[in-house]
Design brief:
253 residues; Rossmann fold; 8-stranded mixed sheet; AB_hydrolase_1; AB_hydrolase; AB hydrolase-1 domain-containing protein; AB_hydrolase_fold
């Protein structure tokens, strides 16, 4: 049975889609902005198995960010503050007083900013291939090359991103991931979101993160680099870095 899709309204009037499953201490899985579609993810065996592992003994919460998936697509504000409103809307709608937060790659700055501002609400922070300063990530040669492709050839861009996400030895999974990316958002929306995300910088907030933090870096990830993971972990007072051997970029692959 698929999870029941519900909606929370942000303070700026955006409807955010989310679902919950399981019972126990809440674990909120933040979206990998802008690649999020909570209904299609559950229909994908790899994603579903990942979520089923996470929800053992926990209440799992998953939501789509603005402009993506089943959340409002007709949105113009994709700032860091706006994405924080998305998270606020969901946890407030559910009345979560304390919860753990999991974020992947581009969801990292939002999760870190939330952790710094709301230390009393987070029990743990889990970061996968994340970064604090977007320029460190988008300044990498690989991501610079992908930016040009994203703007000029959406089909080739999503196919290439699909292979980078799953590994080049899994063509079927890569094609499926590419289709997932295209269903998550439109090219024009992705371009608008990336223009904002490329300016995100929460590096000055790292010292304010009080919750125990696990920084996970998959060693098969083409980007971000392990140096970014080390830098991130070193800036958070109660952080531990784990480099995961023979692990692809995405945790659900």
């Amino acid at each position: 049975m698929e999870p029941r899709i519900q909606y929370a309204k942000t303070k700026d009037g955006v409807s955010i889609a989310f679902w919950t499953l399981g019972e126990g201490m809440p674990l909120v899985v933040a979206p990998m902005i802008p690649w999020s579609h909570i209904q299609r993810e559950w229909q994908w065996p790899g994603y579903r198995a990942f979520y089923e592992r996470l929800m053992r003994g926990r209440k799992l919460v998953r939501y789509d960010s603005r402009g993506s998936g089943l959340s409002d697509r007709d949105v113009t504000d994709f700032s860091l503050e706006a994405h924080l409103l998305d998270l606020d809307a969901v946890v407030d709608r559910l009345g979560l007083e304390r919860f753990a937060l999991f974020a992947t790659i581009s969801g990292g700055p939002v999760a870190l900013a939330y952790a710094a501002r709301h230390p009393q609400r987070l029990s743990h922070l889990l970061l996968w291939a994340a970064y604090a300063r977007a320029s460190d990530y988008f300044g990498l040669p690989q991501t610079k090359a992908m930016r040009k492709l994203r703007d000029e050839d959406w089909e080739t861009y999503t196919e290439t991103l699909g292979h980078a996400s799953t590994g080049w030895s899994e063509p079927e999974e890569a094609r499926r991931m590419a289709a997932h990316y295209r269903h998550s958002t439109k090219q024009e929306t992705a371009q608008a979101i990336y223009r904002e995300m490329e300016r995100f910088d929460v590096s000055d907030m790292l010292g304010k993160v009080e919750s125990p933090t696990l920084v996970m870096h998959p060693d098969r990830a083409p980007y971000p680099t392990v140096d970014l993971a080390r830098s991130l972990a070193s800036g958070i007072p109660d952080a531990r870095l784990v480099v995961l051997e023979d692990s692809p970029l995405m945790p659900w692959v």
